[in-house]
Amino acid sequence: HAKSAGRNRYAVFGPHMDELIRTKRDLEQDLRAALHAGNQLEVFYQPVYSAQSREISSLEALVRWRHPSKGAIAPDVFVPLAETAGLIDRLGAFVLKEACSTAREFPSLDIAVNVSAIELGQRHYAAQVFSLLRQFSVEPWRLELEITETALLDEAGVCEKNITALRDFGVKFALDDFGTGFSSFGRLQRLEVDRIKIDRSFVHAFDRPGGGVAVVQSIVGVAHAKGLRITAEGVETEEQSEILRNLGCDELQGFHLSKPVPKSSLRQLLGAETAKRTSS
Ligand code: C2E
Ligand code: MG
Ligand code: MG
Ligand code: MG
Question: Where is the EAL domain (predicted)?
Fold first, then answer.
């Protein structure tokens, strides 16, 4: 009885699990191949706007993967995969190199790059960043590395050492998706970062009763008291943009202002923005 029930269970769940594991392994292989091939991965750039002047102040590099048969795969899917498959260093190096080359091409803009806690936990990470900046003649203060709270949880202290070395050199740091992790205001007081990026969930809660306005207001208060800059993520409407500007957010980012675009569209986008401002 038990045996047949067990077999039944296997029949229902077994192959499914099996398939999931195989799919994951296949995708890992495909990602490894993509890192070699070099034409499936591309870096897109989402402009970040000054809340006051509405000028573009920086670009955030966001990696894209066009899988040869599956089409576009979201970074929320393949970045974690790269982390567990030991591929995140190569992926991170690819994005950073692309971002440095873009920074050199657009000298008036700063550039932000997302960094996984695993990369930051590698002993030689800071040295690799220095060497890329030097190779592309990009001043260190034009680069901002976006980290998440997990990077600050690192027990071995390697992340912290890298952050300190990079900050001493002039590289900036932003805490991404702020408010979604363990961060408390107490922690915010001690953070060694230059900027807080308020997670889009707070921005999107503006229109709900008891929504995110009060939360954003207190984050802005504490952060500004510490001398940190604030970016609001996920700005999708003019109304949100207006509220965030009034709350004192320094920079705004979101589909309402601009979607992430390929590098080939940047010149046109920047030109159009300048034209829009000078004509209004
Ligand atoms: P993130 O760093 O918080 O990036 C913001 C994400 O929100 C991006 O998604 C962006 O396309 C999306 N977004 C921008 N404006 C809006 C908006 O108005 N509304 C909504 N709903 N979404 C908006 P994307 O590109 O899919 O990236 C997702 C996450 O993947 C990133 O979140 C980041 O954590 C990670 N990621 C992306 N590129 C890299 C990378 O090169 N390295 C690492 N380690 N992680 C990356
Ligand atoms: Mg980010
Ligand atoms: Mg974010
Ligand atoms: Mg995120």
Answer: 24-274
Maximum distance among all Cα pairs of the chain, rounded to whole angstroms: 80
Q: Please count the CA atoms within 13 angstroms of the CA of 236 that sit on its side-chain side.
A: 10
Q: Which atom of ligand 1 is nearest to the CA of 62?
A: 38
Q: Which of 40-54, 145-159, 184-198, 224-238 has the lowest mean pLDDT?
A: 184-198
Pocket (CB within 6 angstroms of ligand 1):
46, 61-63, 74-76, 79, 95, 114-116, 146, 176-177, 200, 233-236, 254-255, 260
Query: What own/partner pairs with CB < 8 Å and gap ≥ 24 does 211-219 have?
Result: 213/243, 213/247, 215/179, 216/244, 216/247, 216/249, 217/247, 218/185, 219/178, 219/179, 219/188
Measured CA to CA in angstroms, residue 179 lies from 105, 184, 192, 201, 216 at distances of 34, 8, 16, 9, 9
| pLDDT at residue number 2 | 45
Cα of 96 vs centre of ligand 3, distance in Å, is 17
How far, in whole angstroms, is CA 144 from its chain's centroid?
10
Measure CA 272 to chain center. Answer: 25
ipTM of predicted assembly, 2 dp: 0.98
Q: Which of 143-147, 238-242, 270-274 has the lowest mean pLDDT?
A: 270-274
Query: What span, in angstroms and rounded, lies between the C-alpha atoms of 196 and 181?
Result: 13
The H or E element spanning position 147 is strand 143-147
Higher pLDDT, 3 or 88: 88
